[in-house]
Each structure stands twice: as structure tokens, then as C-alpha cells.
Amino acid sequence: MRPEILFPLFAPLSSLPGLGPKMAPLAARVAGGERVLDLLFTLPGGLVDRRLRPLAAARPGAVATALVEVAGHRSPASSRAPWRITCRDGPAFIDILYFGGREDWISRRFPIGARRIVSGKVEIRDARLQMPHPDHVLAEAEAAELPALEPVYPLTAGLLARVMLRATRAALARAPDLPEWISAERLARAGWPSWREALRILHAPDPGEPGALAERARARLAFDEALAGQYRFLAIRARMQARTAPALAGDGRLREAALREFGHALTRGQQAALAEIDRDLARSQRMRRLLQGDVGSGKTLLASLAMLRAAESGHQAALMAPTELLARQHFSVIGRLAAAAGVEVALLTGRDRGRAREHLLAAIAAGTTRLVIGTHALLSADVTFQSLGLAVIDEGHRFGVHQRLGGAEDGTAPHVLVMTATPIPRTLLLTQWGEVDVSRIPDKPPGRAPVTTTMLALSELDRVLARLDAAVAEGKKFFWVCPLVGEKDSEGEAAAERRFAELSARLPGKVALLHGRMKPDARDAAMASFAAGRVVVLVATTVIEVGVDVPDAQVMVIEGAERFGLAQLHQLRGRVGRGDLHGACLLLHAADAPEPALSRLRVLCETDDGFRIAEADFSLRGPGEVLGTRQSGAMGLRLLEPALHGHLLAEARAEAEAAPPTAARALLLELFAETE
To answer: How far apart are CA 225 and CA 222, in angstroms?
Structure first.
């Protein structure tokens, strides 16, 4: 039950002055919620200085605020001309301009001889100071309503700045003084104000306060959000650790056979990551581990070895992939290793129907099938395991949290290993994956060929096509990726179809097409033709971003590269150079691409270190798109900006682990509880 002291913060926005039935939904859209608290957590993006000064101090292009006397009105000479209200401030004059104003409205708002406070951006025209459409016009008696420093809030159509300002001031007045949840030692060291005072500094700043105070107030609120998140992560971890999972000891016999088939020794990074996984699997306490590895680092191999350990221990293991293409790729790789160990592997996708599916489900339920690879079809209600010891989830950021937990509610309590080929910046690890342990494979297997990356404007396409002709003549294989333009795939697929038609005319019979809306059999046929060398150019959308393994593919052309994020470009580039042949990646960009986009592409040309690229992507684009579309249930950040406050995350983790439960901590968790 929510503590009574918080009731004013959870009242509806419509309870605030100026936010009636019409304005409250607009304010809720801006605030991201319908509570008074949501408005308080909508921090201003800047301040406008509205301190009263003489007109003589006004500067063109800047905001001026002055107490003036209305000297006269001049009606517009034409429908395109403005009303001019001439005002004076001692010896100085200014014209207040209104386009489309009405005479009765002008007369009421600016009576001749009345004194008014006007505030807005000023300009000089024909050597005369003027202020078009002031932001504020107040009677002298209303001076207190205009803050000396006015916060600038985000707005939406129909919602005026003065309405937001009035409502936020009222919300601030309702904010209670809450008991402190941050340790006194940390508060003193950082110089942070209390929770309520931090809100006051940001929403109602005093002109006499130093600018550094606002930075400290913002940092304090960001730390609050980080601390609440870490408390939640610790609670999740405690609940998960309280659940038992089968201890998977294993005897190593199946692994040894698989490694002989693999034919290479594990790298140092792979050995370290596998040791961490094995340590968790040997416990009856449920593992929840994220395996990070750059493109080609060997994550699938480690997943195979972990799954075989489950089989050695008499249990089953399942691997879930986000796409059928990736599931089939895993089935091919893991199936080869498991076959060498004499272990049967099954593939389950949404394509399976009828009697074949029934037989497969029966084998899984009976436990005769030890290893299962599949898509989200593994989550179907009719899929039951005899004894699921390990759930591996690939590209975990593509699943919702419930799915990412590997069936946390189905009673099986398997160990969970999530793996991603998208290197995740350390700050995002603490905000989005703080409840799991993390293993990282920092190196790549020996013998992996380097990939040379270059940039070229799309206006030089003829040069690219000439190089394509020459490379095809040499027997090289090409990926040609067309951009995803819209929220849905249709525009990207249309671009791919156009490019496919053009290249097919140039290279008859040597080009295949692959995109997400093709029928599964057609996709399989295109991939099989490309892998077998029957075609040498595969035109595709980003459906090939993960899971495509064609070792003799040497060239990747990415059209419209400026439209992609760095992490996605790096994933696409990872489709070539997978064997012992040198790879090449060509980033085709628009000739007029903006400089920030070109800066991203230069980073990719300078390094192939996925972790460096991820950090650069994070700093250039922010957290919103680094991991793709925001996932349902992921921790939504309101006050904490990871790129700005990343250093606070580790401190919040330490504070959460050290602090015992208190009533103040319960209040903090209520403030940052996820809304429905």
C-alpha cells in the first residue's frame, strides 16, 4: 500500500491549476504519465532570463523584459501588416507587434496609459526596437507571476509554455519533504541537496544561485533513479537466486568429442568465459548470465559446450533465436558439434506443422531429444521439457524481458545464458542488465581474416559497379545490403528489389534476393544458392544482420550507410571475412549526408573493435537506439542520462549493496516504480 506522504505526487495531472479536461491529456503526453510526479520528473531543458531591465539594455536577438507604459496603437495598413502598440520606458521606445490581432483585444490588453510588463525576443527594424508577439504580457500587479529565470519545458500542439509553468509550480508546491535515502557521507562528499530541494533548484531556480548548483541537483536526481534501479535489480537477483536449478556437473566426454570436431583450441577469452559459465552451472542456484562477444568471437561454440554439459548431466538444453534464419544457422553449427558427440539436436520453428511437429514435441517431452534449437516457437504452451537444465537466448535484446528470462514462470527454473553479438557499453550494462552477471569474450579466434572498410559517396556508384564486375570475375562473393528506411520493412524491401533488378540485368543469373517478407522456402533457397556459389551476389535487407555464416563471402556493400547506427553497421560487416580470405566492406553514403553521420562511418573505418564501436555509438547517438527498439519492461530512464551520468551507476550499485532496507528506501522505490 502506498505511503500517505506520497499521495499528492500520485494525484492526477487534472488536479493541477490550468490542467482541465482539455489540457491534462496534452500535459500527460509531454510528461510521459498522468501523475503530478510525472510532471515534476519532466525537467526543463534550459532557462530564459526574464529579469526586469531598462529597454536601453535590450539587445537584438535576445529576450528582453521591461516595465513599459502604453503610449499608443496603430492599426495595420494592410492584411499582411501587424498592429503596432507603441510603449515607452523613460526615454526609450519599443513597438509591440501583433499580426492578425483584433482592435478590441488590443485595447483590452494594452489600454493607453497603462503600465505593462512585456517579455519576449526583441529586434531592430528601421532603427526602431520592436518585439513581435511577446511571450508574456502582465499587469504591473502580476509581476510575481513571471519568474526571473523561466524554465523551458517540452511542449506539444495546444499546450502553452505558461500553462506548463503554472502547473509545474503548483506540482512543486505539493512535493513533500521526504526522509533521506542516500547516505549522509555520499551526500556530503557530492554536495547534493535533498530530494525536494533538488526539484526546487531545477524547476524554480533563484538568480543568485550558482550554475553548479543546478548540475548537482540534476546529478542527485539521476543518482536517485540509478539507486532505485539497482535496488530493483538486487531484488530480482535475490528472487532468481532463491530459485533452484539442476546442478550441471558433467563429465566432459561430450564436450571433448565436440571440441575434436571443432578442430581448434579455445582462445584465452573463451576459456575464461566458459569457466565462469561452468562455475554457475555446477551450482543448484540458478544462473543468469549475459555472454557478450564481438562478431566471430565464438559465442555459439561456448553455448554448444554449455548445452552439452547439460546433456552430460542427464538434462536438456534449449537455444532460442530471434529469427528462423538465425535458428537454422545455430542448428547447423551446433548440430555438427553435437553429432560428433552422438547427441541428437532438434529444430523447432513456427514453420513446423502437423504430424512432424507432434513427433518432435513428444520427443522433447519424453527427454529423448536432449538439445533443441528454435525461435519464439519454443515459448508455445504445447512445448514441454522433461528436464530443462539450461536455456540459451541469443540476441537477448530483441526479446521482451519475460522471454529473456527463459521461462521464469513455467516452473522449470533452468539456468539462463543470454548471449549477444552487439557489444554493449558498460553504462548500459548497469542500466538494462544490472540483474545479471556478465561474461565478455574480448578476443577473436586466431586466423580470422581482417576486413578493410572504406567510405564512398553514392554519386560514385558507377565506380562501385565496375569494381563489382571485376570482383565477380575473380570469383568473389558479395553481400549488397539496402537500407531500412521506414518503421516497417516495406521501403527497405522495395529498395532491395530495385537494386536486385538492376544488378540482375548486369549479372544475369548471378544475383539472389533476400528480405523478411519473402516466404521461408524462398529465403532458404536464396541463402542456399549463395552459400553454394550458384549465385555470387546476395541483395538483402538487414535480415542478414545476424546468423548468416558464409565463410567465402568477401565483400559487403552497405547502401545508405549513413542511415544505420554504428553497432548495426559493425554487425553487417561481420558477415564477411569469416574465413581465411580477406574481407572488404564498402559504406555507400549520400553525397549530402550530414557530418554527424559521416563521423560515425569514419569510426567504423578506423577500428574493428566492436566494444570501441559500441562506446562510440553510445556517445554519438545516446542510449535510445544503441540496442534497437526499446523493449517492453526494460528500465525506462527519466532523469538519468547514461552518457552524462554513467559514472554514477557503479556508485549507485555500491550504495544499494551496502544500504540496509529502510522506510526511506521504500519511498524511493515507490517514486520510481514502473507504471502500467
So the answer is: 5
| C-alpha cell belonging to residue 551 | 565463410
Q: By three-state DSSP, how is residue 539 classified?
A: strand
Instruction: Specify whether the CB–CB gap between 396 and 420 falls below 8 A.
Output: yes
CATH for 253-441 is: 3.40.50.300
- Kindly tell me the number of DSSP H helices and DSSP E strands found in the chain: 22, 22
- Select the CATH number that applies to the domain covering 51-146 from these four: 2.30.30.100, 2.40.340.10, 2.40.50.140, 1.10.340.30: 2.40.50.140
pLDDT of residue 583: 87
- 151-201 pLDDT tens trace: 999 999 999 998 999 999 999 999 999 999 999 999 999 999 999 999 999
Specify the pLDDT at position 634. Answer: 39
d(CA 114, CA 136): 16
DSSP H/E element including 320:
strand 316-320
Close Cβ partners of 584 (under 8 Å, ≥ 6 residues apart):
451, 452, 453, 454, 554, 555, 556, 576
Instruction: Kindly list the distances between the CA atom of residue 484 and the CA atoms of 295, 465, 543, 585, in Å, as whole numbers in the listed order.
Output: 21, 21, 10, 18
Do 390 and 248 form a contact (C-beta atoms < 8 A)?
yes
State residue 550's pLDDT score. Answer: 80
The pairing of strands 83-89 and 63-74 is antiparallel
As a whole number of angstroms, the distance between CA 534 and CA 536 comes to 7
- The per-residue DSSP string of 416-473 comes to EEEEESS---HHHHHHHSTTSEEEEE-S--TTPPPEEEEEEEGGGHHHHHHHHHHHHH
Average pLDDT, the chain: 87
The DSSP string of 625-661 is TTTSSPPTTS---SS--HHHHHHHHHHHHHHHHHSPP
Per 3-state DSSP, the chain is made up of helix, strand and coil in percentages (nearest 5) of 45, 20, 35
| Range 451-607 classified under CATH 3.90.320.10 | no
End-to-end CA distance of the chain: 16
Give percent of the chain above pLDDT 70: 89
Residue 244: partners with Cβ closer than 8 Å, 6 or more residues away: 284, 285, 286, 413
- Cell reading at 52: 526586469
Is the alpha carbon torsion for 301, 303, 304, 310 positive or negative? positive
| Whole-angstrom distance, CA of residue 589 vs CA of residue 57 | 48
Q: Please say whether the beta carbons of 433 and 405 come within 8 A.
A: no
Contact 547, 578 (CB under 8 A): no
Q: What is the average per-residue pLDDT within 433-445?
A: 80
Q: Where in the chain is the domain with CATH 3.40.50.300?
A: 253-441, 451-607
Would you say residue 477 has pLDDT above 50?
yes
- Going by pLDDT thresholds of 50, 70 and 90, the confidence category of residue 405 is very low
Non-local (6+) Cβ contacts of 585 within 8 A are 451, 452, 453, 454, 555, 556, 557, 558, 572, 573, 576, 604
Return the ∠ at Cα 102 (arms to 98 and 107), rounded to 5°. 90
pLDDT at residue 544 greater than cutoff 80: no
